[in-house]
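Protocol step 4 of 5: obtain the predicted structure for the target chain.
Materials: sequence only (see below). No template structures provided, no constraints applied. The aim of this step is simply to have a reference model before the mutagenesis design in step 5. Sequence pasted as it appears in the construct record:
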Amino acid sequence: MTFTADTGLATEIAGLVNRVYAEAEAGLWVDGASRTTEAEVAGLIDAGEIAVAQTEDRVVGSVRIQQLDDGLGEFGMLVAAPDQRGTGLGRELVRFAEQWARSHGLAAMQLELLVPRTWKHPVKEFLRGWYTRIGYQVVRTGDLNADFPHLVPHLACPCDFLIFRKDLSQ
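Step 4 output (structure tokens):
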């Protein structure tokens, strides 16, 4: 896994992210909503915020990594191709993100998980358990109306986002 400056990958990464999120967030967004665009991914690549896992012929996973403040990193847009599920690729991408944060002197890593407010989404429940098992704990619940009001009109149901953190100093 490496960071890449090859903007030719933007289309492939955006396609993978949108395919994975269409399933992982089914029922949360109005029809036709996409998680990202090729232009957004190209900007993240240019900023050095996308790490990819590749085989010889394709991208099989990716994760966005960024520094939020002096002691806090964040990862997001974590995806593994459907045929890679259960292989440990997701865990390796998270491990890579955590190592990146440590190498930048960051003491903690954060992630956000969008969840429906009035029902339990099976993929989101799986992810909540998985993140907890790999050492992340919910530190607060965010409110999309307050933090990301531009997203609210695109939601198919009321949602919040869980903010998870992990201490990396251990």
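Step 4 remarks: Strands lie at 2-3, 50-54, 59-69, 72-80, 108-116, 137-143, 159-167. The longest helix spans residues 10-24.
Proceed to step 5.
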